[in-house]
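Risk register update: the risk of archive-format incompatibility is retired. Evidence:
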Amino acid sequence: MKSFLITILAISCAAFLFLGNMYWKERTSISATSDTAGTETVNSEVAEDEKKEEEQVKDEVETESAQSEEDVDVQTLISNWPEDAQQRFISLLEEGEPFKMAVVGSNAMGLDENGWAPQLMEALGTNYGDHIDVQLFQYDLTSIDFINGAESDEVISFEPDLVLFEPFSLVDNSNSVGTVQNHESILMFENRLNEMNGKSVLLLQPPHPLAGATYYPEQIESLEEFAAEEGIPYIDHWTGWPEENELADYLIESQDTPNDRGHEIWADQLIDYFVSE
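Archived output:
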């Protein structure tokens, strides 16, 4: 009887130890699985964060690179402009504001016939896009009528950063307005621009050349000398026109304005100036 009880007790102890060992293995397996899952989750989150940071850095680098390329392109395009106009353009570009350019002159601008002014406007829009706002102001006036009339106020109210000004020299020539009065009108206009916006730049250009003229070329030479004396930038597009004996082929019969061929020459000269490559 005693031997039987001892045998039963030994079997019970062995069963207890076996069941305890099995329970411990199960608990250990569950804990390890839980820890592994937790680690995988944490690692996954860290990897995702690192991926996002890498993508953000990549986007910033690409943006800065694109901006740098645009700045270089713009600097090249405006390299012929007066220095003050270049600085103003870059400043407005950084502020996200358009650069305002007014093109002002006589009927020789050719607004209604695809003249040089519309061609220039189109080229500026193509190359500068929304970074430039170009307005054309064409008037059939003498320089005196322009400066004393509402027309000059119209240009001023546009608040241009740059004015490309053909100062009615040919119209003045046809209406007996002398060079002194013409130059005084230019100075008055420049002063009013400075009062409106001290950063506005006036840029002069002559009207088109004429065939067989005598006094008129002297007026234009005087205009260029006046611009140099007053420190006003001047575009001499006459250098791109043909010799005098061929000029009639580039003007309408009255010579008041260029014809299509003349407008093309004039436009090309200005486009090369304002869109440098």
